[in-house]
Amino acid sequence: MKTLTQLTFNNTFAALPADFYRQVAPTPLSDPYLISFSQSAADLLDIDPNEFQHPFTTELFSGVKSLPDMQPLAALYAGHQFGHYVPQLGDGRAILLGEAVNERGEHWELQLKGAGQTPYSRDGDGRAVLRSSIREYLCSEAMAGLGIPTTRALCLVGSDEEVYREQIETGAMVLRMAPSFVRFGSFEVFFYRRQHDQLRILADYVIQHDYPGLADAETPYLALLEKVIERTAKLVAQWQLVGFAHGVLNTDNMSVLGLTLDYGPFGFLDAYDPDFICNHSDYQGRYAFDRQPNMGLWNLSCFAQALLPLLDASGEAAAEKAKSALQGYQGIFVDAFAQGMRAKLGLSEAKEKDQQLSADLLEAMQKNQVDYTLLFRNLGQLKVAFEHPRQDAVMRDLFLDQAAFDRWAIDYRARLRAENRQDTARQTRMNQVNPKYVLRNYLAQQAIAKAERKDFSEVNRLLKALSNPYAEDPENADLAALPPDWAGKIEVSCSS
Ligand code: AMP
Ligand code: MG
Question: How buried is residue 362: exposed, middle or buried, by Cβ count under 10 Å (0-12/13-18/19+)?
Fold first, then answer.
């Protein structure tokens, strides 16, 4: 266990050429207070949890103090936003403090979001409000709890400092952690500026830093593209399986490590609705729930384009290579989704008709506005032998047309019978993949409302439940209930 002053830093990003970033120190929040910290994120850095009792920690993670080995900077990147290329974005309000190396040799970049203006802030104030910081903090740790690749959140610090959005709010900072925050847009910026040397330096950096196994590949840059395609396809499959909508799948929010990155107006499905648009500012539904797999591929094609100069000296040959790599996406996504859906249904063998079985269920769920999380969690309770007419009531109650579930369950039971497994063993397995708790919008909203009155108990209760989302905790029964009627009326926009 370490104190913060004992952290070891090896700032590899800061060692890149000067045109990759601008050095800038955080602008402190006034009179900061610690709202919450994540024990499991602290464990990744071997930080002693007692450190969070000390004012120094709050000061460090609100920009008031710093450590001598930190080299704060804002990274440069560009990106396609809602389909349009924006030549310069960059960290406008997040500041990379440094890269910590833990006792196991793993590296974690520490990034303070809401840390004030940087040379890339454009018209922004460099701040993040409490509301959006709570959402990012909780969802980062919730995704980690679910086993979905994500940037992490170490702690959340608040302040009474006023920040102006649609109304007056207060500022907060989240300390984010990731092995790397390099985005698709980090490559795009150099491609569009025709800075091919920088492009190569960045690709070499990412390979060496995060994909060391690729360095020995015959064609490392193509191998990098293929790896990013694979990770992205698997990530999006996990989002679809858990009912997560990211909300702003711009290429500047796409991690080259395949991590869920930049939590803005995200949402988890309540009732199953493939057309769900969680971002109130997404008028066209570009990033609707069921479009995410396509958007993953669209974004990857931007990334592949940015890599073209590295793939082959001949433009035509490079394009051919990128195209054939991108063709792998669909298959990886479909396989990952099918495998995950089979696990959600408690099936251990792959059968030809599985796709139809899950499609039929999803169709019935959509027609009947069935709660996505509750249906899958409760499905584990089904008994293969239909012993009692009331036994399926929990599932059936979720359907408006109650017979719809019974009709589907005929095929499902037949399929389960063919596998000849014990009900209890199947339920145990299903409960390991079908979460009891997800960060529904209304749950986040309740925690935010309390936090805005300086009561942080709900933030901490949610953090605990969401960090262990597959376990049952009777004290948190209310967090696993059907959402109230007002939940559907919450509007979340890009403003944060
Ligand atoms: P986002 O939509 O949060 O991914 O942000 C897109 C771009 O806008 C990034 O370059 C951000 O750093 C920048 N940005 C967002 N909010 C602010 C803000 N309040 N101040 C400065 N830059 C911001
Ligand atoms: Mg972003």
Answer: middle
Nearest to 62 by CA among 164, 181, 156: 156
Distance 80 CA to ligand 1 centre (A): 14
For residue 416, the enclosing domain spans 347-420
Considering only the C-alpha atoms of the chain, give the largest distance between any 2 of them, rounded to a whole number of Å.
71
The model's pTM: 0.98
Q: Contact at 8 Å (CB) between 385 and 412?
A: no
Residue 15 lies in a domain: no
| Distance separating alpha carbons of residues 307 and 207, to the nearest angstrom | 13
- What single string gives the DSSP state of each residue in 197-258? HHHHHHHHHHHHHH-GGGGGSSSHHHHHHHHHHHHHHHHHHHHHHHTEE-S---GGG-BTT-
Domain annotation covers residue 363: yes
pLDDT band of 391, cuts 50, 70, 90: low
**Residue 437 maps to a domain:** no
Q: Which of 43, 204, 252, 406 is catalytic?
A: 252
Stated as kind and residue range, the H or E segment containing 316 is: helix 315-326
* Ligand 1 lined by 392 (C-beta under 6 Å): no
Ligand 1: does its nearest atom lie under 6 Å from the Cβ of 17?
no
Burial 405-444 (b: 16+ CB within 10 A, else e): beebbeebbebbeeeebeeeebbebbbebbbbbbbbbbbb
Q: How far away, in angstroms, is 13 Cα from ligand 2 center? A: 18
Catalytic residue check, 252: yes
CA distance 4 to 437: 32
**With a 6 A CB cut-off, is 169 part of the ligand 1 pocket?**
no
**Chain centre to alpha carbon of residue 384:** 35
Find residue 109's DSSP bridge partners: 99, 178
Q: Is residue 402 part of a domain?
A: yes
Return the residue whose CA atom lies nearest to atom 17 of ligand 1: 124
* 389 pLDDT more than 80: no
CA of 161 to the centre of ligand 2 (A): 23
Total of domains in the chain: 1
Confidence of residue 388 (pLDDT cuts 50, 70, 90): low
Task: Give bridge partners of residue 21 from the DSSP assignment.
Answer: 75
Residue 124 CB less than 6 A away from ligand 1 = yes
